[in-house]
Amino acid sequence: MSKALEGVRVLDFTHVQSGPTCTQLLAWFGADVIKVERAGEGDATRAQLRDIPGVDSLYFTMLNHNKRSITLDAKHPAGKEVLETLIRDCDVLVENFAPGALDRMGFSWERIQALNPRMIVASVKGFGPGPYEHCKVYENVAQCTGGSASTTGFDDGPPVVTGAQIGDSGSGLHLALGIVTALYQRQATGRGQRVLTAMQDAVLNLCRVKLRDQQRLERNGVMEEYPQYAFGEFGSAVPRAGNASGGGQPGWILKCKGWDSDPNAYIYFIAQAAVWPAICRVIGREEWITHPDFATPRARLPRLMEIFATIEEWTKTLTKFEVMDILNQYDIPCGPILSMKEIAEEPSLRATGTIVEVEHPERGSYLTVGNPIKLSDSPTEVRRSPLLGEHTDEVLAQLGYSAAQIAALREQRAI
Ligand code: CAO
């Protein structure tokens, strides 16, 4: 079966996490992704957080599946020539160097356009144009500057960053969408274009409900679904809301059986208005169905913490999976807190290809997260990440270099 992006060639000049997330997706959809790395060291993540000495880290392997790796010194004159050949040959160049690095290599937008007017040049940067555009940025910087950290955590604690890599992987996802959109537009215009995702913008996009709340707060002074509504004060900016749902249906994390020894024996419980009578029956509080203090969502708002504490008395008597089984019989939305261990062992995630076991020649088998986007006509087969420079000769031969020319480039340390 053919793949959605078959025939698209990607010059992958990305490193660390944000850019590689993007190019991995393109590779999973069938693009030929050629990762360009420096000889000797390669992508810094190959050596970061290693669990096996001398072997590519899981950090690297889990972000670089289905790609080919070539080594090339982009600052060496002969290396630059190879890069020019690649630019002429490819459809998309993706990079997430520090601001200005590509220009310093001699590959400005104008230069790339002159080499290949159809080339789409896609970049992740920390910030868009403005006072911080020259700054280097890592994940948590983006979380802090994009609005996530100030709105995550509890009201009485400091800002908190989330383990979900919304700055890096979130930006990579946004960039991938920009690239396929630019490829689509190119069919009509015949021209390439620049695609930019600023990490701050990507995080803010994922935090847009909090900008919604900022404006609601400024208009009304309170937000009734926030825990501060009943028990605390609002300031001038959106506060941290603990485990409140952030939507129109109140929710909270509740203890389940075993919570005193298992840090993940909890469940997220949503007190959806539509199933309020069922909730009352399940927890043995049938009188709340008609009681004026509890019967309507508005009446419940100032009592949410009392309500959740009562529900928790019930959830604490059962495991999180038992709670889920019971609640689902009544269409009461809930979600057990799954540990990474539980997720790794979950058979249904293996069956859908969301968790995949991959064989690697140096590390043996390891688990990775497969393509979370499933296309019925373009199924993803996850192939292991390349070793450093594994495909240098193969790619250069495809570009028309002879064995003697490749040997000469190697001799000059250009590849
Ligand atoms: N041949 C020759 N030189 C190469 C090369 C190659 N194949 N690949 C990289 N280089 C050079 C670059 O040209 C750059 O040189 P100059 O500093 O002389 O211009 C140098 O290597 C270092 O690149 P860098 O500045 O991008 O890397 P860094 O480790 O110093 O910074 C990071 C890393 C991520 C902070 C920075 O790249 C960045 O801000 N990127 C944009 C935002 C981003 O994607 N951040 C998320 C990363 S994921 O957590």
Describe the model.
The protein is α/β, with parallel strands linked by helices and 415 residues long. It is built from 18 helices and 11 strands. The protein has helices at residues 18-28, 58-61, 77-89, 101-104, 109-115, 139-145, 168-189, 199-206, 208-220, 228-231, 276-282, 297-300, 304-315, 320-329, 340-345, 347-351, 392-398, 403-411, and strands spanning 9-13, 32-37, 67-71, 92-95, 120-125, 194-198, 251-255, 266-270, 334-336, 355-360, 364-369. It has a 6-stranded parallel β-sheet with strand order 3-2-1-4-5-6, sandwiched between helices. α1 (18-28) links the parallel β1 and β2. The longest helix is centred in the middle third of the chain and has 22 residues, at 168-189. The structure holds oxidized coenzyme A (CAO). The site of oxidized coenzyme A has 25 residues, from α1, β2, α4 and β5.
Radius of gyration: 26 Å
Q: Can you count the helices?
A: 18
Helical coverage, percent range: 25-40%
Adjacency order of strands in the biggest sheet: 3-2-1-4-5-6
Shape: elongated
Counted beta strands: 11
Low-pLDDT segments: none
